[in-house]
Amino acid sequence: MAVTTLTGAPVAAPRRARRGAAVPYLLLVPGLLWLVVFFVVPMVSLASQSLQTGDVDNGYTMTWNFATYADALSTYWPQLLRSLIYAGIATLLTLALGYPLAWFIAHRSGRYKNFLLVLVIAPFFTSFLIRTLAWQTILGDSGLLAQIALRTHTDFLLTGFKEGLKAVGLINNDQLLFSPFAVICGLTYNFLPFMVLPLYSNLERLDHRLVEAAGDLYASPVQAFRRVIWPLSLPGVVAGTLLTFIPAAGDYINSVLLGSTRTVMIGQVIDAQFLRVLDYPTAAALSFILMLIIVAFVITYVRRAGTEELV
Amino acid sequence: MAWLRRNLVIIVGILVMIYILLPNLVVIIFSFNKPLGRYNYQWNEFSFDAWTNVCGVPGMCQSVGLSLQIGLIASLTAAVLGTMVAFALGRYRFRGRSGTNLLIFLPMATPEVVMGSSLLTLFIAMGIPTGRTTILIAHIMFCLSFVVVTVKARVASLDPRLEQAAADLYANEFQTFRKVTLPLVLPGIAAGTLLAFSLSFDDYIITNFNASPESVTFPMYVWGAAQRGTPVQINVIGTVMFLGALAVVVIGQVVSSRRNRKVA
Fold first, then answer.
1. Rounded Cα–Cα distance for residues B207 and B116 (Å)
2. Chain B residues whose beta carbon lies within 8 Å of the beta carbon of residue A127
3. How far apart are CA A223 and CA A105, in angstroms?
4. Which of A80, A189, A282, B14 is most exposed, with minimal Cβ within 10 Å?
5. Taking CA atoms, what residue in B is nearest to A29?
6. Which CATH architecture has domain A77-140+177-305?
């Protein structure tokens, strides 16, 4: 990593190299030891647990029982698939909503830029759970949305919206809450700032003269976006989609608080198997499968997008 | 029509902003509600009841206290360990550097449910009972990476000539670090610590895997309450957190802009 300052002066990285060769290692030891003992070792423990047989009362023995994986997948593939689909839709929605917002903050907000950035991270200041619960208030049958529609005589819009959602299968009856729609709405909402912030820091650095040059060369605004702005913003898009998709795929707060028994996601299954059913091998296997899927996704995605620069 | 096209991005941006902020607004407004039943979902009547009697619901204030305690210890520990790692990464070339970077990146790219459950299997295998200590261990673990990333950015952007100047003025290494390097990196450390605190205070999934019925944090309390009816006091805590954090950010902005003006 060749770090240089703005003036081009190289950072004195190899300084003290000979005399203090042990210094970086001394600085690293406590932190890395913590991560190895409480992150890496648990992963090994998880993998090992998934291959053991036994029960809580009589203990577990290692039997290399790969059948647990087959059983777990054949039983819980719908929840796994659903998690990936919900997280995928939520990620695309955060991109579609976050891109205009990031552009607006980066290039059109003038002196309100810092203020708007604070507002984007402001939701983090209130508990994730409390904010997710607020969506129950908003989407409920006689909730905020319904009240506003009623008071402003625009309930025909809401009804039309519901019909549309019903047509694509995102709600099952006339209820907005406790449906796939509500879960995806919650996921999109909760992870939107994770998309906006990397996009913003990328778009802010965009040289406006490139867009002007595209215009001078008779590119329409759409062409300028497709050929100039979008390719340049790809590192931000990659960072944003990873930061959104990964936590969304494992999340179950939204599916529990805003969903129903028909929107169960894989995190919910892992939680229940671990803490209520006490079937540790199955729970560990599911957890490990989720981890493998995420790792595979990150590697192929980062490779295809051709960017090494993360966040 | 032309006006609409020119300002489309602003209109969409403002609508998305509303989407982002609406739940916070609802939380604040409904902290003044006097609900009819056990569920605080429908507006009934304006009242200060919840605000004047915050600790009136059993267990809630204890859970806030526990979360504050865990958040404070976890964020400070992660800040110390993370800053050391950040200096090593930002300042030195050494063998195993990219491996270290990967180890720092991985916890941020792992779903919470995987981290929480894997730690639980470790604690089960070692026969360690879950509770306050195991929650702390988990929180320090997932906060560490965020501190490293925040502080490393600040260390990397330091102008090395400032330290060289200090050395030219006969400051020894320790003096240089204390009088020049540390003050310059401090805003990064502060930001990393605040981030760690808010992550710790807010975490439900990892905490839930590594907690016991005796160690109920605030998010765990809210989760439990959501199943049996949410007291209005939860909204009061949410509002106080929101306004408190907003105040910290605004003060931080004012202080840093004053400092910049003084330097300039």
1. 7
2. 201-202, 218-219, 222, 237-238, 241
3. 22
4. B14
5. B85
6. Orthogonal Bundle (1.10)
**Whether residue B221 sits in one domain with residue B155:** yes
Residue among A11, A13, A252 minimizing CB distance to B113: A252
Amino acid at A168: V
Expressed as residue numbers, the domain containing B255 is 231-264
Domain definitions of chain A by residue range: 77-140+177-305
In a domain, B214, yes or no: yes
Q: How far is CA B196 from CA B43, B80, B86, B160, B202, in A?
A: 35, 12, 15, 28, 10
Considering only CB atoms, A287 lies closest to which of B40, B106, B114, namely: B114
- Average pLDDT along chain A, 311 residues, taken 10 residues at a time: 41 50 88 96 94 86 92 95 96 96 91 88 87 93 87 89 90 89 96 94 90 90 90 91 94 95 94 92 94 90 66 39
Contact B41 A140 (CB under 8 A): yes
Q: What is the ipTM of this complex?
A: 0.89
Output the pLDDT for position B263.
63
Q: Which residue has the tokens 């998305």?
A: B16
Is B211 in the same domain as B237?
no
CA distance A168 to chain B (A): 22
Per-residue pLDDT at A245: 95
Question: Tokens at residue B2, please?
Answer: 């032309």
Res B73: pLDDT:
97
Contact B242 A125 (CB under 8 A): yes
Question: What single-letter amino acid sits at A2?
Answer: A
- Residue A302, classed as helix, strand or coil, is helix
CA distance B189 to chain A (A): 15
Do B154 and B243 belong to one domain?
Answer: no
In a domain, B90, yes or no: yes
Query: Quick check: B118 pLDDT over 70?
Result: yes
Instruction: State whether A124 and B202 contact (CB < 8 Å).
Output: yes
pLDDT band at B21, cuts 50/70/90? very high
Q: Do B146 and B202 fall within a single domain?
A: yes
Phi, psi of A4 (to 5 degrees): -130, 150
User: pLDDT of B54-67, one tens digit each?
Assistant: 888 888 999 999 99
Please tell me the pTM assigned to this model: 0.89
Q: With beta carbons under 8 A apart, name residues in chain B contacting A124.
A: 198, 202, 245
Looking at beta carbons, which residues of chain B come within 8 Å of A283? 117
Question: In the predicted model, is pLDDT for residue B229 greater than 50?
Answer: yes
Provide the pLDDT for residue A307: 54
Using an 8 Å Cβ cutoff, are A215 and A182 in contact? no
pLDDT of residue B48: 86
Minimum-distance CB partner of B9 among A104, A193, A270: A104
CB-CB neighbors (< 8 A) of B218 in chain A: 127
Residues B141 and B264 in one domain: no
> B197 and B151, same structural domain?
yes
Mean pLDDT, rounded, for B170-198 = 89
**A-B contacts (CB, under 8 Å):** 278
Q: CB of A249 within 8 A of CB of B112?
A: no
What span, in angstroms and rounded, lies between the C-alpha atoms of A186 and A89?
12
